[in-house]
Amino acid sequence: MIAVLLGSNLFKNRYAWPTPIRNAGLIIVGYTIGLSMTAAALHEMAVQLPSMLIMTLLLMLLCALLAYLLTKMSNINYKTALLGSIPGGLTQMVILAEETEGIQLTIVTVLQVIRLMMIVVCVPLLVFSPLMGNHKIVETVINSVTTSTASWGSLMPNIFLFAAVSIGCALLGNKINFPTAFLLGPAFSTAILQLTGIHGPALPTPIINAAQIMIGIHVGLMLKPAQLTHKLQVISLAIGSSVVLLFGSFGLSYVFMKLHAVSKSTALLSLAPGGMDQMGIIAHEINANLSVVVGYQLFRTFFIFFAVPPLLRMIFKYSAAKRVIRNTPS
Questions:
Q1: Domain locations in the chain?
Q2: What pLDDT, in 10s, does the model give residues 260-297?
Q3: Signal sequence span per UniProt (predicted)?
Q4: Which end of the chain offers a freer environment for a tag, N or C, measured as fewer CB atoms within 10 Å?
């Protein structure tokens, strides 16, 4: 992403990235998300559904407040600030921004990318700090993460079935205008196949890395710093809002810990705004409650995928209608 960002701005109009390659990356990521939707995770989601909904709504309310503060401290309009502040769906929010009028796409992308990078970097540091009591196992985690990888041989033969179903559902979902079809189609189909008792093999690290490259290059091409006015201000506000969001998540995790008998690490990883796969890996390595972490992360992810886009469209249409009425001579 960074390499393409630099190259595309140094050598303008020389780079292109075919959409089918990005879609292939989304299918792979969707499959890995579907693998996380085990019976245990779905059961945990059902049991704690009220708490999940309340915590997610509180997090969304914090994002809405942050977006309002961003508009007051800069020349960014509220729609742009809101789409840039909502966590847990970089691709989803960028696609929604592309489809919405009056959105500064580059600002949305910059806000989302900086937030995601801050969360992915800061949450592991916080979890492994003495504050959480997990600092003694950092070396063990590093060793296990760097040495554990799915074998290529374990893919056979089920991977052919999962690949065919994932690609088919992605294409079908895209044809019927299903939201983020190339991500959610494989995720749902993989989860359903697993619940029927068919084992979904974990993907080797090179495939996961390739998928991240496919998506990262696409995002890198969307970052156009030349279109940013007040670059330093926008980047500073993005970092500041990400820090506030992180502290807000930490505060909500403390409330969550008091409401349910879970550890500090489980609570924080459950509510960390972004990086479900990274949070799941850390939860597994420190013996946090993986079902709770994955359940909360999945609920927020799908809440953002399904509930947030139509809600935002409704709010934006209502605001536009109010402006028209206000500007119409009586």
A1: 2-148+155-316
A2: 878 888 888 888 876 565 676 677 667 777 778 877 88
A3: none
A4: C
